Amino acid sequence: MSLRYSKHFLNKLEDLIAETDYILRYERGNFTSGWCILNDTKVIIVNKFFATDGKINCLLDIIKSLNIDKNSLSEKNQKLFYELSQTKLEL
Description:
By secondary structure, this protein is α+β, with helices and mostly antiparallel strands. Helix content is about 40%, strand content about 15%.
């Protein structure tokens, strides 16, 4: 799967996270890596000043680090999650 750094792809990632137990928020902050996860409250916070490609990279890192129940996702998002799990990011 080739990653497209577009607003449409960002919306797909946000939709995938919306189907999990986590809440995604864009806030300003001084995060070490640009994002943080508050596991006790299941909130994901991403730096809102990132460009679209920075937000996408953060969300990809987050999705790969979470234990997401694939069965709770819609069929469309299950396919996306599977494709993302097969993709290795190279910088």
